[in-house]
From TrEMBL:
Cofactor(s), by name: pyridoxal 5'-phosphate
Name of the featured protein: Threonine synthase
Function comment: Catalyzes the gamma-elimination of phosphate from L-phosphohomoserine and the beta-addition of water to produce L-threonine.
Keyword Phosphoprotein: no
Residues annotated with N6-(pyridoxal phosphate)lysine modification: K108
Domain annotation Tryptophan synthase beta chain-like PALP: ranges: 100-371
Length: 429
C-alpha cells in the first residue's frame, strides 16, 4: 500500500515505512493513495466469516502487497487473541457495542496490538527498537501490554506523576521486563515535549532505533476498521438497513476507522461524532470555522483534546469519496448531562462510564424513527471506578486483569521534565 503525506502529497511511502515513521515531513499524516472497495456479493460472504478470517480479508485489501494473506492471518490472530467485542441490548432500537474486553480494558488494545505485530514482522533480525511514547492513561497501558516480552523491543512510557488514575498506573507500571515506565514531575504536555525532543535528536534516534506508537500511526487505524464489520455482522438484516453508529471522539481515530469501513463498502447509514465540552469539531461542523479553545478537564478525560490530529484524515476521506460533511451528525455533551445520562443508563440496567454515556446520549437524542443505533463502549467502567461509583452510588467489581495487578509493586522511575535526564536514561537503561 502506498500512502501520501497530507501536508506534502509528493512524499509517498509504503506501509512499512509509514508504520516506522509514524508521521511524515512537517508532522504530516499518511493517507492511502488507493481506497479499496468490497462488492456487495463479497461483503455478504465476508459477514459470515469468523472475526479473524474476516479481519484478515479486510486488512489484506490494504496491505497484501507487503504481507501475504497467510502471514497476515497469523499476525491478526495473535493481535486479536482476546474476547471479541460484544453487543449488549439497551433498548429496542439501541445497543452498546463493547470494545473493552481486551487485556487493558479499552478499545485501544485492537490498534496497539496489531501495530506491535506489524513492527515485529518488519523488524530485521537484530534490529533494536525503542518505542517511546507519552500517555495520559489508556494508550500507555495498551502499548505496554502489546509489546510486552517482545525480543529486541524496548518500550519507554512517560506519564505525568499523579495525573492518571491509580488503577491506570497499576495496569502498565507493574509489568517490568522490556517495559520501562517513567513518571514525570510535570504535566502531560511536559511528557509530550520530552518525546519530541528525543525525536529531534537525530543521533540519539538512530543509535537506539527510536519509534513512536501514538494514535496517528496508520496501522492502528486499519486494525480498528475490523470491528465495525463485526458490529454489522451481529445485527439483524432489518437493523443493517438503517444503522447509525455513535462514536465518542478524542483524537478522532476511532471515527476515522469507522468512515474507512464505510468507504470500503460497509453500508452504515450514518455516524454521530460525539465530543465532551472540548467541542472544536461540532463547532466547526456548525459554523465552518476551525477555532480550537484551551483544553478543558472533564470526567471523560480520554476525550479531552481540542486539536484532534485525525480530523484532517476525515476531511480528506470525505473529499476523496465526494461525500458531504453535512451528512455527518454531531454533538457535544457537558459533564452534568454525562452524569445524568450515566444514571439513566443505570436505571435501564446498564453500568456504563463517561465516554460511552456521551455517545449514548447523542444517539438517543438524534435517532430517527425506523433507525437502529449502536454506540461504542470504548472503556470498561472499572477503569473509571472512583468517578462511576460516586455517580451511581454502586460498587464496581474489578475485572481479573485489574485485580491481578492491584497488589503488584509499581516499578516506575521518576524524573524531572529535563531532556538530559531522559537522554541519560534512554542510553543507559
Ligand atoms: C482514546 C479514547 C477515546 C477517544 O478515541 P479517539 O480514537 O482518540 O477519538 C474515547 N474513549 C476512550 C475510553 C478512550 O480511551
Amino acid at each position: 500500500m502506498k500512502l501520501y503525506n497530507l501536508k506534502n502529497h509528493t512524499e509517498q511511502v509504503n506501509f512499512e515505512t509509514a508504520i516506522k515513521l509514524g508521521l511524515g515531513e512537517k508532522q504530516g499524516l499518511f493517507f492511502p493513495v488507493k481506497l479499496p472497495t468490497i462488492k456487495p456479493q463479497e461483503l455478504s460472504k465476508m459477514l459470515k466469516m469468523d472475526f479473524i478470517t474476516r479481519s484478515t480479508e479486510i486488512l489484506s485489501k490494504f496491505i497484501s502487497h507487503e504481507i501475504s494473506k497467510e502471514k497476515l492471518y497469523e499476525y491478526v490472530k495473535k493481535a486479536f487473541s482476546f474476547q471479541y467485542p460484544l453487543k449488549v441490548d439497551i433498548k429496542k432500537d439501541i445497543s452498546c457495542f463493547e470494545l473493552f474486553h481486551g487485556p487493558t480494558l479499552a478499545f485501544k488494545d485492537f490498534g496497539a496490538r496489531f501495530m506491535a505485530q506489524m513492527i515485529q514482522s518488519f523488524k530485521k533480525n537484530n534490529e533494536l527498537f525503542t518505542i517511546l511514547t507519552a500517555t495520559s492513561g489508556d494508550t500507555g497501558a495498551a502499548v505496554a501490554h502489546a509489546f510486552y516480552g517482545m525480543k529486541n523491543v524496548r518500550v519507554i512510557i512517560l506519564y505525568p506523576k499523579g495525573k492518571i488514575s491509580d488503577l491506570q498506573e497499576k495496569l502498565f507500571c507493574t509489568l517490568g521486563g522490556n517495559i520501562k515506565t517513567i513518571s514525570i514531575n510535570g504535566s502531560f504536555d511536559d511528557c509530550q515535549k520530552l518525546v519530541k525532543e528525543a525525536f529531534d535528536d537525530k543521533k540519539l534516534k538512530e543509535s537506539i532505533g527510536l519509534n513512536s506508537a501514538n494514535s496517528i500511526n496508520i496501522s492502528r487505524l486499519l486494525a480498528q476498521i475490523c470491528y465495525y464489520f463485526e458490529a454489522f455482522s451481529l445485527i439483524s438484516k432489518k437493523q443493517q438497513k438503517k444503522l447509525v453508529i455513535s462514536v465518542p471522539c478524542g483524537n478522532f481515530g476511532n471515527l476515522t476507522a469507522g468512515l474507512l469501513a464505510k468507504s470500503l463498502g460497509l453500508p452504515i447509514k450514518s455516524f454521530i461524532a460525539c465530543t465532551n465540552s472540548n467541542d472544536t469539531v461540532p463547532r466547526f461542523l456548525k459554523s465552518g470555522k476551525w477555532k480550537p479553545k484551551k483544553t478543558i478537564s472533564t470526567i471523560s478525560n480520554a476525550m479531552d483534546i481540542s486539536q484532534p490530529n485525525n480530523w484532517t484524515r476525515i476531511e480528506e476521506l470525505f473529499h476523496r469519496k465526494s461525500w458531504n460533511l453535512k451528512e455527518l451528525r454531531f454533538g457535544s455533551v457537558s459533564d452534568d448531562t454525562t452524569i445524568e445520562t450515566l444514571q439513566e443508563l443505570f436505571k435501564l440496567g446498564y453500568e456504563s462510564e463517561p465516554h460511552a454515556a456521551i455517545a449514548y446520549r447523542l444517539l438517543k437524542d438524534q435517532l430517527k424513527p425506523g433507525e437502529f443505533g449502536l454506540f461504542l463502549g470504548t472503556a470498561h467502567p472499572a477503569k473509571f471506578k472512583n468517578t462511576v461509583e460516586k455517580i451511581l452510588k454502586n460498587n464496581i467489581l474489578l475485572p481479573k486483569s485489574l485485580k491481578n495487578r492491584i497488589n503488584s509493586p509499581l516499578l516506575s522511575h521518576n524524573i524531572n521534565p529535563n531532556f538530559s535526564k531522559l537522554k541519560k536514561f534512554l542510553i543507559e537503561e
